[in-house]
Amino acid sequence: MAEIDTQKDVYLFLHGKMDLKEKATDALVAKGFAKDRIIMALPTKVGAVGDYMAMLWMPPNPDHIKIQQITKIQDVEPEGMIGLWKGVSKDDIDSIPLV
After folding, report:
1. Would 27 be classed as within a structural domain?
2. Domain count, the chain
3. Under a CB-based contact definition with an 8 Å cutoff, are residues 72 and 49 in contact?
4. Looking at the chain, which terminus has fewer C-beta neighbours within 10 angstroms, N or C?
5. What is the DSSP letter of 11?
6. Dihedral sign, CA of 67, 8, 75, 72?
């Protein structure tokens, strides 16, 4: 895994699986992310370059969390559930099994 900067925020995407929020948070903390830096992703606010995205994958029945780092942010018109995240470029850096 790439070195995690625990001073950066990590935006958690549950894809409607609110029942997995605690399990996903616990898995991220066990992987080294700071619990107070885990933020529920909203379509109206994106992170900054260098922040992380953690998404339950693959919907609709996720079995792991895909970890990505934000590499670029473009201004876009929000679109549906994706919202402003449509303009975010990211690189996959790791995955964590959901157990």
Report:
1. yes
2. 1
3. yes
4. C
5. E
6. negative
